[in-house]
Design a protein that fits this description.
The protein is built from seven helices and six strands, in the order αβββαβααβααβα. By secondary structure, it is α+β, with helices and mostly antiparallel strands. The chain has two domains: about 160 residues, no CATH class; about 40 residues. Strands 1, 2, 3, 4, 5 and 6 form a six-stranded antiparallel beta sheet that branches.
Length: about 210
Amino acid sequence: MASSKNSTQQFVPIKEVREGILMLKDGGMRGVLLASSLNFSLKSEDEKNAIIFQFQDFLNSLDFSVQIVIQSRKLDIRPYIALLEEQEKKQMNDLMKIQTKEYIEFIKSFTETTNIMTKNFFIVVPYSPVSLSVGKVPGIGNIFANKTKKEEVAANEATFEENRTQLEERMSVVEQGLIRTGIRVARLGTEEVIELFYKAFNPGETEKPLKAK
C-alpha cells in the first residue's frame, strides 16, 4: 500500500500550500481565486454587450495566462433534511408539524429522482520564478556553498516574499478585471486551498454518512 501511495503522489505536482499559495515541485507558484457567477440570461441586451466587452478588455489586458476551472458537484441535501427534521420536532402546532413533515418527504423524493448540482468557478493565476542554475556560472556554486544554514533559510524566505509579491500583483490585475465585469472574487486561503484539492482527489468523501450528534 505504501508503494501505491508513493506512486500516486508522483503524479501530483503540488509540493506544499503556503500562505494560500500553491508551491509546485518545479518551483512554480499558483494563486486561486473563487469567482461568482452571473445570470447572463436575465440581463438586457445592452447589459449583455457591456459584460462581453468588459470581459474581452480584461482578457486582452493580460500579459500572462490564467486557467478557468469549473467544478460541478452533486449537492449534499442531508444537512438541510436534518435541519428540517429538528424543526419538525420543535413544532408545537400540529398543522405546521404535518406540513413540515410533508415538505421533508417532498424534498427527499425530489432529490432522489433529480440530480441537483452545485457549480463553483475558480481562476488559477500562475507565476514561475526565473531560477539561475547553480554551476552554470563560474564560481557561483562556491558562493552558495559558503552560506550557513541560517543564511540559506533567510535567502529562501526573501526569495519567497519577492515571488509572492509578483504573484499577488497578477492576482490583483485579475481581480480588478473581473470586478469590472460584475463578477465578485475572493482569494482562497491555505485551508480553503487544501480543502479544494482534498475534495478533488477524494470525491467519495461527500457521500459518507453523516456523523451522529
